[in-house]
Amino acid sequence: MLFVILTIITYVAAILWITPTIIKTNTNKPNTTVILGFGILTVLLHFITLSNQLSTMFGFRLTIINVVSFICLLMSLMMTFAITKWKTSLLPLLVIYILSIVSVALSGFITGETAKYFSQNISLLFHISIAMLSYAMFFIALLYVFQLKWIDFKLKNKQLSFSSHLPPLMTVERHLFSLTFIAQVLLTLTLITGMIYLPQVFSNNQIHKTVFSFMAWIIYAILLFGQWKLHWRGKRVLIYSISGMILLTVGYFGSRI
Predict the structure, then answer these.
(1) Cβ-proximal residues to 3 (8 Å cutoff; 6+ apart), any chain
(2) Rounded to the nearest 5°, which phi and psi values hold at 118?
(3) Which GO terms describe its biological process (predicted)?
(4) Segment 53-79 mean pLDDT
């Protein structure tokens, strides 16, 4: 419980530091060193907290809340280090830290949920890890879509004075494509390893995972092609991103919600 409280406190401190950077209108560059320091500390505490909740004498204890917390940890880790290279990561990082607080609080204070236990099966754990990493990157990409729409709205309404640290549209679009492409590669690996390491992947209680995950793969493949060749932007990218995320969520969590 101590680590849960410490993790929440450090996430809140990081949010309080980042928020003024986003909303102020002066031209000073954000202090990424301080943000990185806060981020590394919060991610480390989050990892310790989650490790205590996952590891049991029966193997790895996976509940929906623990899985969500792990995905938030992955997103926090990736975007914390991205802050040193990508100016576009500041706003998504703020949202991810807020989601991480919720996930840590839920995983720390709700313990009565039915859990699945996995022994130290390396191939299965690899499959699950790749699946979670893919989901995390698709979720970050979705946050980039919302950021893109928000900046575009501000530009059209000439309200971009809200912050001088908001990134250019073209940069956000480029990073969005990169995130979606990497996530799609990981989803492809997830589907392949699932068919190799999970012989019951087409059984009655697992078939929906395969079907919805493959449907999400198709949606994201169309989205990537549209962005690459047809120069899709705006509402169409948003619709495809949300649709893919919904399908992937149903595929990953549908049988346990």
Answers:
(1) 45, 48, 49, 52
(2) -120, 130
(3) cytochrome complex assembly
(4) 80
Q: CA 231 to CA 95: how far, in whole Å?
A: 27
Helix segments in 55-200, DSSP class H: 64-82, 90-109, 122-156, 169-197
By CB atoms closer than 10 A (0-12, 13-18, 19+), residue 109 is exposed
pLDDT in tens, 70-85: 999 999 999 999 888 8
Which range (1-10, 206-215, 248-257) has the least confidence?
248-257
State the maximum Cα–Cα separation within the chain, in Å, rounded to a whole number: 58
Residues of the chain by 3-state class (helix, strand, coil), percent to 5: 75, 5, 20
> Which amino acid belongs to residue 55?
S
Burial 170-197, CB ≥16 within 10 A → b, else e: eebbebbbebbbbbbebbebbbebbeeb
Q: Are 171 and 88 in contact (CB under 8 A)?
A: yes
Sequence ranges of the domains in the chain: 1-120, 121-257
